Amino acid sequence: MPLANGRHYLAIPGPSVMPDRVLQAMHRPAPNIYTGALVDLVESVVPDLNRVAKSSGRVAIYIGNGHAAWEASLANTLAPGDKALVLATGMFAKSWAAMAEALGVEAEILDFGDRDTVDASQIEARLSADTRGEIRAVLTVQVDTATSVRNDIPSIRAAMDAAGHPGLLIVDCIACLACDDFRMDDWGVDVMVAGCQKGLMTPPGMCFVFFNDKAAARRAELARVSSYWDWIPRSNPEAFYQYFCGTAPTHHLFGLREALTMILEEEGLEAVLARHATLARAVWAALEAWGQGGAIACNMTDRAHRSHAVTAVRMEAPNATALRDWVTDNAGVTLGIGLGMAPPGDPAWHGFFRIGHMGHVNTHMVIGGLGAIDAGLKALGLPHGDGALEAATRVCAGGSNRSA
Known about the structure:
Elements: E1 9-11, H1 20-26, H2 37-53, E2 58-63, H3 66-75, E3 83-88, H4 91-102, E4 106-111, H5 120-128, E5 135-141, H6 153-162, E6 168-172, E7 191-195, E8 206-211, H7 213-221, H8 231-235, H9 250-267, H10 269-291, E9 296-298, E10 310-315, H11 319-331, E11 333-337, E12 352-356, H12 363-379, H13 388-396
Parallel strand pairs: 1-11, 3-4, 3-5, 5-6, 6-7
Antiparallel strand pairs: 2-8, 7-8, 9-10, 10-12, 11-12
């Protein structure tokens, strides 16, 4: 008898679990979009977004998903014929490069594979060879959602500085903002893109582009940027509607305001980051225990370079798909599919899945999700080691497995 009825747990890497308070904040009649509470709310949201990004620069808000943020960042910094260096540790950086190419930008990819971080020495060598300054920007993801690899952003900035390269550093934090630590000013990032539907716990529909003075100066050099993507009026509007190039995403803004209050004023950003780090270690501890007796493992072997927002998992095909299906049908838990690890038509595609542990999650949700996976392994007769739930529980209780 399936036991999946009841509240379903969406343990995928976004959209993440939405707090009831965020959903309730959105459950209201449409507001006045010209004056009043909505205008005041947006004036409070903008500085709080910068607090999360640890940025003293400007932010533009777009109605769209993470791909919209990608395009906005490209449209304001690169012209057709320009060249960008893209640092890939999974499919999302490559997809960003493909979007750049579609806009007429030459995207050169340095591919570091699906199980490793970027190599700063290779970046420095490539940029040092760019003696004519043809590379106008370096694009990278902090966390690739497909592989769960977490890149060391300060090391990339250090490599650019060591090469004396003037290009912009543009970073995708869509998977991990408010989950993994990010320090835009301290790390010398010029442009950062993010979405509302992961660590910011708001239904999909808004995205953000943060930028500093250096990036703003680059925007000023461009001959044209479409009125919709132009970040100038959005970040410094003369009238309220210019924040959004038209009608505001009203109800999303009410939800985002509630989420930012929960993150910044109630739990506190540093506590939010610490919670994500502990829950991530609990997931890793369970996977490492299961892996002692079977072919199941974190995609990223080095804990220091694993994301605190999502964990990509490897198994023998077709066991990953079989496990995902069992957990959904019998336990009411949805795990993320594998992305970019094998072509969809390849049987190897069924050897990967992902566990999202981002946003509005706590101990009982993560331990419960791991318990469902443990039950699935047993029900399907898949080989695995013992003690996974005990190991995860010890982490949450403040015991072993403290190393990040």
